[in-house]
Amino acid sequence: MSTVYRNILLPVDGSQQSIDAFKSGILLAKKLESNVYLVLVLDENSDEIVVNKREAFLGSLADFASKEGVKLHKEIIYGEPRSQIAHDLIDRWSINLIVMGATGKGRIAKMTIGSVTEYVLRNAKCAVLISR
């Protein structure tokens, strides 16, 4: 099947909205037969305990994708989430679509669209699907 959304980026941060967006992205990728790139962006100063927990978290999401019959590339990326998602990763993997949650983990972000999501929505060079 040929699709304009050949490469889908699914950034997660551990929030429930990002997990829900991930699941929606997996189901979409399954229907479109797209390549999927699952990423979690961490601060460069993250300690080993945080990294290990996040690797386990990504592993559980990869298991969900596998059960749906979707293979994916998963990776922890270090740096600033906004620029990594909206610019660097799009170029790196030729991303056509980003599927992400409307808000992240912050309390204030839950009242409005999250700052990372808003930045990606305004600056990404590809289509962005926001999930609530």
TrEMBL record:
SUPFAM superfamilies: Adenine nucleotide alpha hydrolases-like. Residues 5-132 form the UspA domain. It comes from the Bacteria. InterPro entries: Rossmann-like_a/b/a_fold (IPR014729), Universal_stress_UspA (IPR006015), UspA (IPR006016). Pfam families: Usp. Belongs to the universal stress protein A family. This is UspA domain-containing protein.
